[in-house]
Every structure is written in C-alpha cells, then in structure tokens.
C-alpha cells in the first residue's frame, strides 16, 4: 500500500522482502502461488504488493518490483492487466493496489495499469509527484510541495485529502488514508468504524503504513504503534523494538529490524508471517 518501506510489502495472503543484494524473498500462499514467484529477480531497489481486504470474493494478488535501471517487474494475478508494466521506463517508484499498479516517473508524472472502474487509475493529470500509494479502490500521492492528491472511490471520505499539507509520506488502505507530516505527526481520513483512523495522538513517527482495516507506524525510537482492527492479532506489535520500517497487509503486519531481520504478526493462514528466517533485508 507506500509509505511502505521499499524493503517490505504485505498483501492479502503473502509477504515480500528485498535483500541487500537486490534479490527478493516471498512468503505465503503456499509459496507456489504466482505472486510469490520472485526467485529470478535481481537488481531490485523497491518492492510492493497489491493488497485487498479479506472477503469471500478476494484473495488473488500481484507483486511489483522496481529495478535500479528504472524497469518494472511484476508477477501474480493479471486479470485486469495490472502486471502489464514491462514497457515502462524511467520509473523511480511503484505502488500496487487491488487489480492495478502505478509508476512514478522521473519527471513527476504517473503511469497506471489495471482496473479503473472506480477512477483509481485516473492519474494522468497528476504532476510534480514524489510519492504514491494504492488502496483497494482509490489511489493517493504526495506532491513535491507536500500537498496530497487522490482519485477513485470516495464513499467513506478516503479521498478527502485536499487540505493536507507538509506531508512526508502517505498510505492508502481499504476505506481510509493516512498521512505522515514532516513534523512526525500522523493524520487520517476515511472510514472510522474500525479505529484505523485513530492516529491523531501519534508523535515522533518516521514511517507508517495502512492495512485494510488497520494502521501501523514506526517511531524515532524504533517502537511500533498500531490502530484499528485486531481480529487476527495484526496490531499485536507492542513488544517490537529496533524497528525501522513496517508493512501492513490485509490482516497481518511486518516489521523490519535494524539488523535486517523481520518480524510478523497477525493472520498466518497462508504462511504470510513465516518471515523469521529472513535476513539481509535492506532499505535502499
């Protein structure tokens, strides 16, 4: 979903990690699912996963990676053309949501592939962008002046970011959006029913990520904050220490330690939290 660490990504049923040597690890979906077929990837500098809320009609996903040469790789479900990114060039950042992929170009413009039924791929007018994130049905971004833009489904107010200023990062969940200010404070808009928007009291935050129904953030001291649905234990992060980045999926959460190892909590039905053997995970 970004504000994601470029080193960790969490989807509906899988997790992805970027190693220091530019190779990629994956866990979940039985490790046979196509979204986890990343073994041959090399020269990667960023990874993202297409997350989607947990429901009977959801489950399939995709994984996207950005190489150091600006070329984009993708694997997984391609039912809406969300993996049709092989022709993209000069990309500096990527974001993935349900059934779509966004790419940030060096000139600050944005390209998109995949489903646009809700307007979530209508990013052609965007200019001077520096960060992107995809929720299920909406897309958000940060401009170079720290303001925010959004497009797509706004049924719960998840696109109501016009007044946001001084942003350092942004992340889109299922029905909510969270932003990180340069002052270390967090802000949120959208559906408040799950508590995922209850971040007003957060301070000294250096990174955050929105899951489907929860939000997680890292403080300057390396501790992790969480708000929202905890039905699967995805907010059980109180004991985590020395964390430098987080990734929130549909019902699980990942944390990257300073030593390059990873912790996970939440739904592990598909093995998406089996990351305890990972090492050398690195933010570029």
Description:
The chain starts with 7 loop residues before the first strand and ends in an 18-residue tail after the last strand. 0% of the residues lie in helices and 41% in strands. It has strands at residues 8-10, 14-18, 24-28, 44-49, 62-67, 72-76, 91-97, 100-105, 110-114, 129-134, 138-143, 148-152, 167-172, 176-181, 186-190, 205-210, 214-219, 224-228, 243-248, 252-257, 262-266. It has a three-stranded antiparallel β-sheet, with no helix packed on it. A hairpin with a 3-residue loop joins strand 13 and strand 14 (176-181). The mean pLDDT is 96. The protein is an all-beta fold and 284 residues long.
Number of domains: 1
Q: Could you tell me the strand content as a percent range?
A: 35-45%
Radius of gyration: 16 Å
What's the shape?
globular
CATH superfamily: Regulator of chromosome condensation 1/beta-lactamase-inhibitor protein II
Mean pLDDT reading:
96
Tally of separate helices = 0
> Tell me, what is the CATH class?
Mainly Beta
Secondary-structure element order, N to C: EEEEEEEEEEEEEEEEEEEEE
Can you name the CATH architecture?
7 Propeller
What do we call the CATH topology? Methylamine Dehydrogenase, Chain H
Kindly report how far apart the N and C termini lie.
Answer: 18 Å
Task: Decide which structural class fits the backbone.
Answer: mainly beta
Which spans have pLDDT < 50 for at least 5 consecutive residues? none
User: Main beta sheet: strand number and arrangement?
Assistant: 3 strands, antiparallel
């Amino acid at each position: 979903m970004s504000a994601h660490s470029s080193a960790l990504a969490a989807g509906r049923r899988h997790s992805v990690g970027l190693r220091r040597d530019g190779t990629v690890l994956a866990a979940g979906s039985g490790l046979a699912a196509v979204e986890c077929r990343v073994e041959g990837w090399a020269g990667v500098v960023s990874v993202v996963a297409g997350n989607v809320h947990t429901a009977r009609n959801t489950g399939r996903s995709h994984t996207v990676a950005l190489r150091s040469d600006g070329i984009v790789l993708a694997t997984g479900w391609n039912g809406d053309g969300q993996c049709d990114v092989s022709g993209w060039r000069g990309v500096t950042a990527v974001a993935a949501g349900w059934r779509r992929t966004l790419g940030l170009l060096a000139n600050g413009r944005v390209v998109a592939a995949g489903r646009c039924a809700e307007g979530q791929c209508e990013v052609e007018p965007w200019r001077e962008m520096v960060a992107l994130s995809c929720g299920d049905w909406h897309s958000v971004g940060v401009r170079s002046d720290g303001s925010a833009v959004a497009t797509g489904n706004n049924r719960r107010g998840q696109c109501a970011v016009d007044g946001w200023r001084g942003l350092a990062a942004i992340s889109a969940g299922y029905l909510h959006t969270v932003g990180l200010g340069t002052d270390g404070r967090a802000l949120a808009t959208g559906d408040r029913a799950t508590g995922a928007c209850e971040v007003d009291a957060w301070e000294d935050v250096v990174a955050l990520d929105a899951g489907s129904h929860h939000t997680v953030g890292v403080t300057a001291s390396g501790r992790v904050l969480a708000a929202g649905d905890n039905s699967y234990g995805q907010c059980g992060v109180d004991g985590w220490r020395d964390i430098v980045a987080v990734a929130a999926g549909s019902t699980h959460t990942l944390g990257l330690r300073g030593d390059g190892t990873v912790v996970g909590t939440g739904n592990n039905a598909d093995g998406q939290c089996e990351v305890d053997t990972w090492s050398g995970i690195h933010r570029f």
